[in-house]
Write a structure and sequence with these properties.
By secondary structure, the protein is an alpha+beta fold. Helices cover 24% and strands 28% of the residues. The strands form two sheets. Strands 1-2-3-6-7-8-9 form a seven-stranded mixed β-sheet, with helices on one face. The radius of gyration is 19 Å and the shape is globular.
Length: 171
C-alpha cells in the first residue's frame, strides 16, 4: 500500500512540473489578419476607438497555438515578438491600433458544422475550417505616441509599458 502512496505522491509532484515545461515550448503564430473600422465584418464586437488617442480604425488579430503561463510572460512574449508581428501585419509606425491575441484552443473549425455560435472567423484563411472558439487571451492597445496598454481577458488589471520600459499595473 505504501508503494501506491509513493506513486501518487510522485505523480502529484511531477504532473505540475511537466505541465509547466509544456507551457515553455515556443509559441507558434498560426494566423494573422488586419481589419479596419470601415469593414463591417471586421471588428468581431471588439472595441471601437475612444477619445484617449487609442485605436479608432486599425484592428489586428493574431491566433497562437498557446501563450505562456503567466501574464508577465505573455507580455514579455509580445514585446519580443512585437517587431515581427508589426512587419508581418504591415502595421505603420505612429498610428493607434489594437491587436487581439486569440488562443486556437481545439483548432480551426467549420462554422457551418459547429454547434456553438460563439466563434471568431478569419477571412484570410481560405479553408472551410477558418473559425475558432472565442478564446481571447490578450489585447494590446497602442496609441499613436507608442504607449502600449495590455489587457487580459482573465484579469481586471491593465498593464502599461512605460517609456522607461517598466510594466506598471493598475485596476
Amino acid at each position: 500500500m505504501k508503494t501506491v502512496y509513493k506513486i501518487i505522491a510522485i505523480g502529484l509532484f511531477v504532473t505540475p512540473f511537466l505541465y509547466y515545461l509544456w507551457t515553455l515550448r515556443p509559441v507558434e503564430i498560426l494566423s494573422e489578419e488586419a481589419l479596419y473600422n470601415s469593414d463591417p465584418q471586421g471588428v468581431h464586437g471588439l472595441f471601437i476607438g475612444n477619445e484617449s488617442g487609442f485605436p479608432g480604425g486599425y484592428y489586428y488579430n493574431v491566433v497562437v497555438d498557446h501563450l505562456p503561463l503567466t501574464k508577465w510572460d505573455q507580455v514579455h512574449w509580445y514585446i519580443v515578438m512585437e517587431s515581427e508581428i508589426k512587419v508581418s501585419l504591415h502595421i505603420p509606425d505612429k498610428i493607434a491600433h489594437h491587436i487581439s491575441i486569440w488562443d486556437v484552443g481545439g483548432g480551426f473549425i467549420n462554422p457551418h458544422r459547429s454547434g456553438d455560435g460563439d466563434l471568431v472567423c478569419f477571412r484570410n484563411i481560405k479553408s472551410e475550417n477558418n473559425c475558432i472558439e472565442k478564446n481571447h487571451r490578450l489585447s494590446i492597445d497602442v496609441s499613436e505616441y507608442g504607449q502600449e496598454k495590455f489587457d487580459f481577458s482573465s484579469d481586471d488589471r491593465t498593464w502599461i509599458l512605460t517609456k522607461q520600459g517598466e510594466l506598471v499595473t493598475y485596476e
